[in-house]
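Q: Structure tokens for this one, please.
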Amino acid sequence: MRLSGSIIDSLLGATLQFSGFCTVRNKVVSKPGPTVKKISGLSILDNNAVNFVSIFLTTVLTAVAFAYIF
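A: Here is the predicted structure, written as tokens:
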């Protein structure tokens, strides 16, 4: 189940978490701004929300899998 949790976290982070490059600071940032060029993702969830949703979905999937198996 660790693999599925990691995949869920990666997919959520890549699609729903904003990632951009600040041309002034020369750093990858997590919030849009006037000097930020978008790399990927939408600005829907921050990192904490991605982690929470990932944990929640992994827990639900694990419970369903174990209920089905046992």
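A few notes: The chain has a mean pLDDT of 95. The two ends are 16 Å apart (CA to CA).
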